[in-house]
TrEMBL record:
It is found in: Cytoplasm. The active site is at Y135, K163. Its EC number is 4.3.3.7. Belongs to the DapA family. Keywords: Amino-acid biosynthesis, Cytoplasm, Diaminopimelate biosynthesis, Lyase, Lysine biosynthesis, Schiff base. SUPFAM superfamilies: Aldolase. CDD domains: DHDPS. The lineage of its organism: Bacteria, Bacillati, Bacillota, Bacilli, Bacillales. SMART domains: DHDPS. Coiled coil: none annotated. This is 4-hydroxy-tetrahydrodipicolinate synthase.
């Protein structure tokens, strides 16, 4: 399964009552694929506010996005949690909904050992025929999956990639030891180009909601050997990469979508919307 170079971790649009806004969700899927050049979409990941979505909402989102994308982009379901049995349950729901793969985050809060992390992911992978993308994001999970554990998991047939948010050093270690066909994606927009330069495959992005076309151009320029052009595009995009994370994600990317004519509503508590001054600062960063 090829998920492409530019994967967008899609926000979940809400209406004024805090319910999923299906009309806005449909527009957003089209916009991300057609205008922002996304190769794949992650549904119900962190950027999609997965902690505050019910299982029923997640299943409905999986089915909706698969139908709306209609083969124009791959759909990856965020089915990870800190409960292995619940992650297996969500993964089976996602498989029945017709998604193309699942994204599984390192278990958070209960602070498993590396052996626990390994067996968590192994159990989920063995429960499904879907391709599995691992997700290591120590800033959110506290527990961090080591390069050694990642490479051990990469030996499992349907674990095909990782989204890595640890250091470039760890990304380098994974790339150096990975079996053929195992792909490494950056989980940090700001190091997309450096990760490509050391052999990474692409990016699972937040900024691609609003500058995906520029990011795709940067990736293609680098792959075509136009390194100076890629570097110039990186410099152009960098303020947006950093600015979108001045508040907890996805607060500012949702605000940014409103500013570019793709309103997706607010966020669910315990997140709160950006204030007027924060939105004004963001407005100045957008192209």
């Amino acid at each position: 399964m090829q998920f492409g170079r530019l994967i967008t971790a899609m926000v979940t649009p809400f209406n004024g009552n805090g319910e999923i806004d299906w009309e806005a969700a449909g527009r957003l899927v089209d916009y991300l694929i057609d205008a922002q050049k996304s190769d794949s979409l992650v549904v119900s990941g962190t950027t999609g506010e997965s902690p505050t979505l019910t299982d029923g909402e997640k299943e409905a989102l999986f089915r909706f996005v698969v139908e709306r994308a209609a083969g124009r982009a791959r759909v990856i379901a965020g089915t990870g949690s800190n409960d292995t049995a619940h992650s297996i349950h969500l993964t089976r729901i996602a498989e029945q909904a017709g998604v193309d793969g699942v994204l599984l985050v390192v278990p958070y809060y209960n602070r498993p050992t590396q052996e626990g992390i390994y067996h968590h992911f192994k159990a989920i992978a063995e429960s499904t025929k879907l391709p599995v993308v691992l997700y290591n994001v120590p800033s959110r999970t506290v527990a961090s999956m080591t390069a050694e554990t990642t490479l051990r998991l990469a030996q499992i047939e349907n674990i095909v990639a990782t989204k890595e948010c640890a250091s470039l050093e760890q990304v380098s270690q994974i790339i150096a030891g990975a079996p053929d066909g195992f792909l490494v994606y950056s989980g940090d927009d700001s190091v997309t180009l450096p990760v490509l330069a050391i052999g990474g495959h692409g990016i699972v992005s937040v900024a691609s909601h609003v500058i995906g076309d520029r990011m795709k151009a940067m990736i293609e320029a680098y792959l075509d050997g136009r390194v100076q052009e890629a570097a110039a595009l990186h410099t152009e995009c960098f303020p947006v990469f950093k600015g979108l994370f001045e508040l907890p994600n996805p607060v500012l990317v949702k605000a940014a979508l409103g500013l570019v004519g793709q309103p997706v509503g607010g966020v669910r508590l315990p997140l709160v919307a950006a204030n007027e001054a924060e939105v004004d600062t963001l407005r100045k960063l957008l192209p």
